[in-house]
């Protein structure tokens, strides 16, 4: 009898800026749920962090890799059940990235909204920023991935990944399994606390106080950011007129506490925003306190993390090798 294949899950975070509660809600908490039933691979995508060189200095990048990997584990990703590794330590990513770049029409990349918004903010736009969704497609296709759990901002990139894989299969024969995005219904796009019309962002969180809730922010900073979060000019919470800022706070409460949204609305309806914010501080703290503690424990003994990442990279290399070999053979690389 043939063994039933578990669903393969792949996702990652760039080691740039300050990992925040939006990354946790939109992506990492979903990964933690999936690891129970899926064959899950979680990568720190450091090659992607190079696409905006201003965002991470070379001297900081290696330290960030460690910090993000330790945070995955501190958030509940279990390295004994999943594969956790640093992208640049598995060279198959860069190799497949090049092969796919050669098979991707330029027009597809110019349409990416993230390229448009990020390139507007740069004085000099590196080619890597344009091509990075192809590398992201390589990351995913390299592992015969079924599901990619991400925040809503990544939906267009996962669709592009499917298009790239599909085109490659048509041009060179069946090579890649086509993945689907997995996006939360609630919490897929957590907004900035200071600017609820903008996605909470790692880079903005690093420079603008009160924008994000960093996973390693101290309790005082978390409280300050929540209590100062933009709501609306009204004095009391009315769900029917709730502004984006208020809805954002309710979403954070809902996903982090696991309580039904309507129960939360019923409790705070008609009261001042201060009550909702004060209780949200406790809900956020209940999530962050164990993460901070576990991160501190892992940071105290770098050898433990090194061993886990070495094992993860080794396993990832083994999984990637046959898929890369298939792609190389099908495009005609190497010798007959
Ligand atoms: N605000 C968010 N709400 C929900 N999910 C989010 N994600 C990101 N922001 C939110 C999801 O977190 C995962 C990792 O993100 P990333 O490393 O790809 O980078 P980013 O967080 O999208 O980018 P930055 O660094 O926040 O943006 P910039 O550089 O513009 O400041 C992904 O699954 C993402 O969807």
Automatic annotation (TrEMBL):
GO cellular component annotations of the record: cytosol
Primary localisation category: cytoplasm
GO molecular function: ATP binding; tryptophan-tRNA ligase activity
Residues annotated for L-tryptophan binding in this entry: 139
Catalytic activity: tRNA(Trp) + L-tryptophan + ATP = L-tryptophyl-tRNA(Trp) + AMP + diphosphate + H(+)
Compartment(s) where it occurs, according to its Swiss-Prot or TrEMBL record: Cytoplasm
Residues the record lists as binding ATP: 14-16, 22-23, 151-153, 190, 199-203
Source domain of life: Bacteria
Function: Catalyzes the attachment of tryptophan to tRNA(Trp).
Protein name, as recorded: Tryptophan--tRNA ligase
Gene that produces this protein: trpS
């Amino acid at each position: 009898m043939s063994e039933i294949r578990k669903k393969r899950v792949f996702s990652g975070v760039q080691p740039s800026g300050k990992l925040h509660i939006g990354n946790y809600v939109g992506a990492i908490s979903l990964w933690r749920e999936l690891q129970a039933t899926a064959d899950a691979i979680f990568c720190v995508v450091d090659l992607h962090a190079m696409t905006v060189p201003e965002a991470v200095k070379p001297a900081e990048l290696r330290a960030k890799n460690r910090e993000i990997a330790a945070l995955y584990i501190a958030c509940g990703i279990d390295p004994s059940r999943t594969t956790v590794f640093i992208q640049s330590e598995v060279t198959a990513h860069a190799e497949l990235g090049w092969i796919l770049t050669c098979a991707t029409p330029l027009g597809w990349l110019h349409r990416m909204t993230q390229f448009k918004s990020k390139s507007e903010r740069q004085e000099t736009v590196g080619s890597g920023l344009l091509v990075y969704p192809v590398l992201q497609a390589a990351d995913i296709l390299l592992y015969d991935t079924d599901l990619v759990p991400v925040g809503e901002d990544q939906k267009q990139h996962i669709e592009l990944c499917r298009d790239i894989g599909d085109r490659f299969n048509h041009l060179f024969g069946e090579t890649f399994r086509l993945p689907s995005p997995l996006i939360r219904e609630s919490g897929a796009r957590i907004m900035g606390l200071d600017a609820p019309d903008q996605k909470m962002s790692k880079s903005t969180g690093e420079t603008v106080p009160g924008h994000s809730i960093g996973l390693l922010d101290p309790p005082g900073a978390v409280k300050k950011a929540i209590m100062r979060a933009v709501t609306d000019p009204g004095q009391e919470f009315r769900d029917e007129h709730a502004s984006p800022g208020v809805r954002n706070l309710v979403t954070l409460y809902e996903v982090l506490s696991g309580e039904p949204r309507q129960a939360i609305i019923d409790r705070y309806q008609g009261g001042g925003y201060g009550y909702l914010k004060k209780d949200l501080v406790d809900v956020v703290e209940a999530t962050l306190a164990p993460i901070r503690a576990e991160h501190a424990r892992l940071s105290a003994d770098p050898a433990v993390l090194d061993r886990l990442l070495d094992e993860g990279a080794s396993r990832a290399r083994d999984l990637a090798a046959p898929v890369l070999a298939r792609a190389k053979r099908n495009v005609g690389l190497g010798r007959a």
